[in-house]
Amino acid sequence: MPRLSTLSLVLLGWALAAAAALAQPPAVDPAEKLRETDRDPKVYEQYWRVGKKVAAFCANCHGDGGNSVKPDVPNLAGQNTAYLLEQVRQFADGRRKNLFMEGLVKALSADEKVGVAVYYASQQVAPHPPADPALTARGKDYYGKICFRCHGDLGTGTANYARIAGQQPEYLMVTLKRYRDGSATRMDPIMAANTRNMTDADLKAVVAYVSTMK
Predict the structure, then answer these.
(1) Are residues 182 and 205 both part of a single domain?
(2) Nearest to 98 by CA among 55, 49, 62, 47
(3) Are 146 and 194 in contact (CB under 8 A)?
(4) 80 and 46: one domain?
(5) Considering only CA atoms, which of 194, 208, 212 is closest in space to residue 154?
(6) Rounded Cα–Cα distance for residues 63 and 110 (Å)
(7) pTM, 2 dp
(8) Residues 38 and 104 placed together within one structural domain of the fold
(9) Domain interval for residue 176
(10) Phi, psi of 75 (to 5 degrees)
(11) Do 68 and 107 have their domain in common?
(12) Higher pLDDT, 7 or 165
């Protein structure tokens, strides 16, 4: 049997690797897995249980049931499943920047990513009681003119826009300032345009209102 050259061995290795890759079943898009949970209650329950297990670790920062224990860490309770899954995807590919979250998300399987989105979306957020009724009323007025267009009248958002109702005040304030000042790592042109002319007083009012929304 003739001996193969080094180049031939390399080419053979590539061919075998390509054949092995072709033999593997195609990876299922997590978004498709999520859609399956809408179609089949049993599949939903399966992913919910997976997500609950993952959330036991996430509770260190995001709290039991997704109500954050840290003022600068967002609540995940009640968030839209598709929106949550997209944020997980963005941490995984580096579009959202947070060293700890990037490492954690990359360690999750596709099923765990879907599961954690399903689990947190099923939880109930705990809104903050209004501390300053006058400021809250001013924020409600501002919200009703601008913010509702994307986040909805009740602040529940959509698959593309975050639920902000009941969100952590400090997290909201930091996020809004970053959009306004152009320092957000995940810049959104719509948010940038709608916050550009907000004063600090406007920000405080909107945050005061949004954090009390149920």
Answers:
(1) yes
(2) 62
(3) yes
(4) yes
(5) 212
(6) 23
(7) 0.83
(8) yes
(9) 133-210
(10) -70, 140
(11) yes
(12) 165
